[in-house]
Every structure is written in C-alpha cells, then in structure tokens.
C-alpha cells in the first residue's frame, strides 16, 4: 500500500472524488484495522453548491470543511447516522468528498460487530451511513488527519488502477432535494458494483 500524500487532496472536490475510486480507506481503530475499497463517492463545493453544508458559509458544524485538505469532516444526519467526508482544496475553501460506499477488505469481523452483527457482506458499507458505522466513525473523529501519524489514511495498492482506470459512471448526487444541486453530476460510482449503494 502507498499512502496518498497531502497534494492528492489539495485539489478541487470533483477531481479528488473521481480519483478516490479504487483507493483503500483505512482506520486503525481500538478494535483493530478496518478498510474498504472505495467504489462510490460524491463531491461538494461550498458556496457554489446548494447541496453543500458550506453553501451559506462557515458554521460551528461546518468549520472542518473550511480547514486544510486531507482531514475528515464527520456530520450527523437524519437524527441517527454519522457520515464521513474527506476535506480537499486549499485551506479556507469549502470543498469535501462524501464517502458513499466501499467494498470491505480488512477487519470484516469488526465491521460486522459495528453494524450490529449483520451477516450480509454486501450491505456492510454500501451507503454513507453504513460505511461510517462499519468503520467505527463518530463525531469524535471530525477533523482527524489522513496524513502521517493519524489513525486514518487512504492508499493505493495493486488493485486500485483496475477500478480507477476502468468504467466509472458520473451521475447526479443522491438524496438532495430539488433545487439543492440534485442535477449536478458529481457522484462517481463503479457501475453495477455489488457494494455500491442503491437508489431508493
């Protein structure tokens, strides 16, 4: 595995979202290592993007999104789920990539435990809330670094190129209301991948 450097994240969110496909997202947590291979991401771009939490400027909730690239932005949604994003672009620029789905690679028993004992391998991390729960991510991880010294990182390995350079669909994002950027094609997904999320 080769960890992704800071310069990888110091770019606009759509570029980072596209290039994260096929990469490993890893958490060295208290119960051991968990890792998924990313197969679905979404980009969000601050004040130019009505679907972004940072559309109306910085708040206490969104402060991390405006921070340096290569950190996690973790938020609570629907009153019940945590979701995890990777902050990108320059400090002060509000851009981030939502990690929507991944194929479990390491720590599968830990992931199952975190997901309440679920036995269906395909459903372990096939959605943003499932991915965060499977990897033991909560509010305490907001602002965590992906760079050297942190318990989280993204990496490339021998299987990354096959997915990244293969067929990747670019579609409108999921779950945004009409007029909130629901028509912006900043979702990247490996079409037909069994671990991608499903549209309702």
Descriptive notes:
The protein is α+β, with helices and mostly antiparallel strands and 200 residues long. It has one domain (2-189): Methylpurine-DNA glycosylase (MPG) (3-methyladenine DNA Glycosylase, Chain A, Roll). Helix content is 16%, strand content 28%. The chain has five helices and nine strands. The chain has helices at 6-9, 13-20, 108-114, 128-134, 160-164; strands at 2-3, 24-29, 32-44, 72-77, 81-87, 96-106, 152-156, 169-171, 187-189. Strands 1, 2, 3, 4, 5, 6, 7, 8 and 9 form a nine-stranded antiparallel sheet that branches.
In brief:
The chain is about 15% helix and about 30% strand. It is built from 5 helices and 9 strands, in the order βααβββββααβαββ.
SSE layout and pairings?
Blueprint: E1 2-3, H1 6-9, H2 13-20, E2 24-29, E3 32-44, E4 72-77, E5 81-87, E6 96-106, H3 108-114, H4 128-134, E7 152-156, H5 160-164, E8 169-171, E9 187-189
For this structure, what is the CATH class? Alpha Beta
By secondary-structure content and strand pairing, the structural class works out as alpha+beta
CATH topology, which one? 3-methyladenine DNA Glycosylase, Chain A
Question: Per the principal axes of the C-alpha atoms, what is the gross shape?
Answer: globular
Which CATH architecture would you pick?
A: Roll
Order of helices and strands: EHHEEEEEHHEHEE
With helices defined by DSSP (H or I, 4 residues minimum), what is the helix count?
5
Quickly count the domains: 1
